[in-house]
Specification:
Keywords: Membrane, Transmembrane, Transmembrane helix. By secondary structure, this protein is mainly β. It has 2 helices and 12 strands. The longest helix has 20 residues.
Length: 162
């Protein structure tokens, strides 16, 4: 740890103790990567498409400090009134999802049906059964970003029911 820095972060204490500077640091250093993550169509691979939803892998990176694990960003876009079939995810998958646009109706493991709006987020755990995943609107599109932490060797992230 450098003298005058905080817990090995390498940042001087006057930056670590100033919320404005921390916010600025996040915007300048992290935001460009997050934006690239969301809109990295150059690495897009279509994992599932139907008339109701479009699923695109926008990010796929092994975690260097967690051998055998990767982080994958999945953009799910629903047409108005669109939905995904009931499904489960890879047994190793922990998922953190954020609604980017519109509203998403969701039901996991027979729990309550919940409507998540733009800016809301939720998690799914390994083995969860996603019975309902649909656009809550019949007139507006909806988008969500699902971030998976999953075994690197997993090739099927989602198994749809027939």
């Amino acid at each position: 740890m450098r003298p005058g820095s905080d817990k090995g972060s390498g940042f001087p204490l006057h930056i670590m103790n100033n919320k404005y500077l921390i916010g600025r640091l996040i915007m300048v250093k992290i935001f460009p990567y997050a934006a690239a993550f969301l809109f990295a169509s150059a690495v897009a691979v279509f994992a599932h498409d139907s008339k109701d939803d479009k699923v695109t892998v926008v990010y796929d990176q092994p975690l260097p400090n967690v051998p055998g694990k990767s982080i994958k960003g999945i953009l799910v876009e629903y047409a108005p009134g669109g939905s995904s079939p009931a499904h489960t995810h890879a047994k190793s998958a922990f998922i953190y999802a954020t609604v980017l646009e519109g509203a998403i109706t969701s039901q996991v493991n027979g729990g309550p049906v919940v409507v998540y709006h733009a800016g809301d987020n939720f998690s799914e755990f390994p083995g969860d059964h996603h019975a309902v995943s649909e656009n809550a609107s019949k007139t507006e599109p909806a988008r969500l970003l699902a971030v998976f932490v999953v075994d690197t060797n997993e090739t099927e992230l989602t198994t749809y029911e027939e």
